[in-house]
């Protein structure tokens, strides 16, 4: 049972102009697909073949000899999660339980945005900005390269990919502009609320 590349949950042009169809074509069709293909090659014939993606990540995270498997498996998971964090006409001030929890934790939506954006901007090199649950506490974190909250006992609620391949075609080196555009226009708060539950 191989690990599959999930379909994007929207059309390739759905996130335009904030994330172009061209970016999604490469990001999903080339980068995400390559992680899936590499992972399937690496686990073929090993004791991890047939395990779930989450099981593979947790197993490989404990073993430095499985760094290649961890990196590809975590990148498959992170990207599948990232696509679901975005939607057409999303973003802006959330509603529901996440809104209350954001206000209680950060003081205001604006302060939350400042901290999330700061996590993305200050992630040196490639990585991810996250909103996670640490027990019942809401936290903003960042991870380098393929690293993922799942490997640290944290529950992911929301992520933004800050690898250059996520924004370079649309924003070149302007990572802060990409982060602002995603937060203001694309976050799927329904998905984030569902992750809280
Ligand atoms: Mn990516």
Topology, pairings included?
Blueprint lengths: L20 H23 L9 H9 L5 H18 L12 H10 L2 H14 L4 E8 L2 E8 L10 E7 L6 H4 L3 H11 L3 H8 L1
Antiparallel strand pairs: 1-2, 1-3
The site of manganese (III) ion has 7 residues, from helix 1.
Write up what this structure looks like:
This protein has 2 domains: 21-84, Fe,Mn superoxide dismutase (SOD) domain (Helix Hairpins), CATH 1.10.287; 97-196, minor pseudopilin epsh fold. The mean pLDDT is 97. With 197 residues, the chain is mainly α. A hairpin with a 2-residue loop joins strand 1 and strand 2. The longest helix is centred in the first third of the chain and has 23 residues, at 21-43. It has 8 helices and 3 strands; from the N terminus they run H-H-H-H-H-E-E-E-H-H-H. Manganese (III) ion is lined by residues 27, 31, 79, 161, 163, 165-166. Manganese (III) ion binds at residues 27, 31, 79, 161, 163, 165-166.
Entry keywords:
single chain; 197 residues; Helix Hairpins; minor pseudopilin epsh fold; 2 domains; 3-stranded antiparallel sheet; binds manganese (III) ion
In short, what is this structure?
This protein has 2 domains: 21-84, Helix Hairpins (Orthogonal Bundle); 97-196, Iron/manganese superoxide dismutase, C-terminal domain (minor pseudopilin epsh fold, 3-Layer(bab) Sandwich). It contains 8 helices and 3 strands, in the order αααααβββααα. The chain has helices spanning 21-43, 53-61, 67-84, 97-106, 109-122, 168-171, 175-185, 189-196, and strands spanning 127-134, 137-144, 155-161.
